[in-house]
Amino acid sequence: MEKMWAGRTDGNTDKSADEFNSSIGTDSRMYRQDVAGSIAHAAMLAKQGIIRQDEADLITDGLVSILDDVAAGRLEIDPEAEDIHMFIEQKLTERIGQVGKKLHTARSRNDQVALDARLYLRDECAEIIRLLAGLAEALTGKAEEYKDAIMPGYTHLQRAQPVTFGHHLMSYVMMLLRDIDRVSDASARMNISPIGSCALAGTTYATDRAFEAEKLGFDGVCLNSIDGVSDRDFCVELAACAAIIMMHLSRLSEELVLWSSWEFGFVELSDSFTTGSSIMPQKKNPDMAELVRGKTGRVYGDLVTLLTLLKGLPLAYNKDMQEDKESIFDACDTVKACLGITRGMIGSMKARTDRMRKAAGEGFINATDLADYLVGKGMPFRDAYKISGRIVGECIARGFTLETFPLQSYAEFSPLFEQDVYEAINLDECVKRRASYGGTSPESVERQIAFARGRTETAVG
User: Fold this and answer.
1) Do the beta carbons of residue 249 and residue 341 sit within 8 Å?
2) Which has fewest Cβ within 10 Å: 75, 146, 189, 449?
3) What pTM was computed for the model?
């Protein structure tokens, strides 16, 4: 089959070279965007008098028929085609004849593929934002359900201070809200049209790039034609957003793995999102959480691939850039799959609040509150800190908790201790008093929930 670019060469490449050169297996998913871009381009050519209106109408009808047939399965994308752009143009010419060859006037595959990639990834951004908002809402729902459930908060994976499970879950919601902002920002920078940049130098035709960009929903056009065809930082930026999202999902997944273990027993994951062992019948494995954690490395790899791909390329377009789509598509696919599966895990997860409360009562996590009690009585914090630490050591040595440590024993460390110390170190009171902005008190968590719900509604609104 003669190549549509035959001319300077005879177009008769070796079969192995054709296979090596082909990107149809990756870029075929952009067929909708390619058709949309071509329809807008035909409209612009007619508006500018570069082709006749009846020719533009014929081209548009032909493109719509191709789109409908591919979507309905009546037309299969030829795996032997070089790329989706050549496949659609070839089918168009087969269907409407010589007029189809006029479509490529005043454009190059260089700006065409850049256009399709921006259109496709713009749609991906919208879907990722929707999924981020969905997971944030699932976490927010659980946070509301467990806003009073006390658990140990950790630093260094050591029990540190009492928090509520709702407060802990809301920390992940705040991360996801920032992820939404990042993807939204990336989408806004991506939403600039490269079409009309042509191969690299623009065109001699009197085109209207702004008209074409507006028809495709872009906010403007690339101001430099070389930049328009050679830039892929919009792919890198989205891949970076994807990597950060996966980092957040991986941290959450790690905690789900820990929390669902016998050693913690804080949560129970639904049977729908766990698996059994092939040999150990007692096992309930958090495979989905582990896979999300594992797939994080895959998305990191996609980001590094893109950065490495682009770092040494001279301007303008180079064939190396064909490799961009496989990485960014994989990053988007992986993020979307992980967001969906994590939402399912969270939505069906049950907290074992009794286990959380028991763990919170065994780790002296109210020791800071004990120190604060003495500060409230007038003692400098550093002195109160030392006394509280010595009391903890004494409790450990004698088998007490702070709640069961006798008042007369407290008095041996400081005469400031009175009966009200037990109220001060009560876990429920410890949590309720942490009502500072962003703190763990149920009232504070409610404010966080209200804020998050307003943000997620706006994001998908």
Assistant:
1) no
2) 189
3) 0.92
